[in-house]
């Protein structure tokens, strides 16, 4: 199909004093011209083809493979625009803020440049090629698969390919492209091409501000703020002369201003920089804190440049005042000679206080990068992180540098960011072309992100130190080669750039890593997982993961997790075929990318939950019913396992041994089994509801020991101690809602710490199949603390649990437009395990609590929705399920 290309009159916008032409009409066609359709920028080829109806929903059934032809074709984007008097400016630059990935650029049929890095902003001088009136841009995108294969033939770097289960493509490590776009164990392959960020033509005469970095330092009663403005200047001039001004809005409201004359040399690449230093009294700014520890005040900073010709350009950012330090010091000095005293500490100190980092890992918001920047996706996941008391997210190294909006929201919400650079699970080439491109990428993105108070630490890569030392990709015979290349990339290239641009923040060469100890061992430690140093990634699908005693200690758990399946409601958006809802279906096997994934889920489940496998003679309905239960039980298992591991890490805060727990992962990119706590449609799994509790600021956390004794910890993430708390332990029989006995204990704990209480509890001498323990905590000044439980025996072995009678009634609480809240009252006649409430899809609706363990005849939770639903309708909508096996 062919569509006529219309020329339109463009308006040249003035943005921050800069004239920008960005209203460009785009089309895209394939190599043989059989497809020619309108295109959207920002966007990408899969989005454009889907919008035009050439392909269907890319996430439906097997479409990730059926649309793979798209990535093998050559696609040409053509843009039409009109230029007027703005061409009278001395500089006209075509700015491609994000090009995915290998492309060749022409303006009015004249070559102006090429691109090879998705994470780089490209600026091309197009002044000689523009004309007043109609103009065209043509950008030819090469197949990323073909380019990766060609580069691999020349610069082969392990591994050879992703596992077969991924249904992916090979040699993603050869391209500076989102590594997950060639497939991962939690996501499909969509090797996209296109402009995933805006395209514009900028017109000016002398110079503009491209980036601003800020460095804050506290000394005495003052904050010292160093501001660096990075300018792009007219390369025809040798110097840029003018004024730079900073305006900082502080409390009061007041404005702190400083103007400085600048006479700077313009480098060969047209760049220059200017610096300002502000001194700010601590009385006029408030301290920025992570979520849960205080407020997140942000202050508007406007940086402007002007010259004698009347030209002005400015940039606005927000800054926060806080100190952050990653403390790696001799543990023996901190802890003495106990087991905790070996090695080095590894914890974050924020504003002078040691903070246990609670959080998760962030993968791309969408498998198509342009859609991952969608603000609704960003807000949905970040708000859920805050709801679960998280204070840190790790932006994982196989994705993208997130949008400005993402980091702004993290600043506003108090979510610290562990920022990986975008290298993951591979060795990488170090040819000069690759390294030059990486150098530009790191410089641009550090300059873009550095000013955000949410950025806590930089990390060079995801798991590549461990992969090289552990011979994951059969590199042992070439270990010296790969170690040399590893150092050349992450140390000699990336580290030098980061330390120059952001010397105050810690740069970790890898994650996991032993930190300073890895560096002392030549950057590849003998054991990158040494629990006495740095951070660890830990996965164990064989042992009983509900048992806290199986987990090894670590200084900082930056990755750990277990798989589950997403909600059936979410999966129904990917297939309408009922036969697909079977573990044995081709569809289910296709969606499970983790080798032996379903087997591992089954192995873990059967340790605690009773769920008989299907028979070969089962009907399609039987298969569906079994699959539905498997989905639910997989989420129970995931939630209980991560609860156990997370509480183990939080308990280990007692002696400062462990000071961080970031589970893998918070979000999803499609409707498939994964490690996420929220599925693709941002429905909370059981895990995310559990995270609200196991990350609670004040938590009573029991640990059942192999001996049958129970250690009880009180965890306090507040700045004030708890001196006169009461821990209540109720002993229940599975047959009754009335406790058979109760005990109360005095409890105390210091600020920002965990403490094992002097409590003697044991279940070794009672019938463990018939009882369980419920823990609750109260103290003056503690608004709430969640219940906790100990199940002495696996639930598959318990005796006395009865099938409940459940009655649910709904009443309206409030009905403000866009925020409708209802009470959901639950009446039961026996113990109910993991009561899971659900409604059909309603926009932005959720239960406040879910996956409930109910031990009282009446229980109330709430339901919130942005849509007004009648009480009668909601009452009829709510469905439920729970754990019960005869």
CATH architecture call of the largest domain: Alpha-Beta Barrel
When the domains are counted, the total is 5
- What portion of residues is helical? 10-25%
Largest sheet: 6 strands, antiparallel
- And the CATH topology of the largest domain? TIM Barrel
Q: Rg from C-alpha positions?
A: 29 Å
Form type: globular
Quaternary status: single chain
CA(first)-CA(last) distance: 61 Å
Structural class category: alpha+beta
The level-1 CATH class of the largest domain: Alpha Beta
Strand content: 25-35%
Characteristics:
Immunoglobulin-like; TIM Barrel; 886 residues; alpha+beta; Jelly Rolls; 5 domains
Q: Can you describe what's shown?
A:
- The chain is of the alpha+beta class and 886 residues long.
- It folds into 5 domains: 13-201, Galactose-binding domain-like (Jelly Rolls, Sandwich), CATH 2.60.120.260; 206-319, Immunoglobulins (Immunoglobulin-like, Sandwich); 359-693, Glycosidases (TIM Barrel, Alpha-Beta Barrel), CATH 3.20.20; 696-797, Immunoglobulin-like (Sandwich), CATH 2.60.40; 806-883, Immunoglobulin-like (Sandwich), CATH 2.60.40.
- It has 18 helices and 47 strands.
- The chain has a 6-stranded antiparallel β-sheet, with helices on one face. Strands 30-29-28-27-26-33 form a 6-stranded parallel β-sheet. Strands 1-2-15-6-10 form a 5-stranded antiparallel β-sheet, with no helix packed on it.
- Helix 7 runs parallel beside helix 8, helix 9 (432-449) runs parallel beside helix 11 (479-501) and helix 16 (620-651) runs parallel beside helix 17.
- The longest helix is centred in the C-terminal third of the chain and has 32 residues, at 620-651.
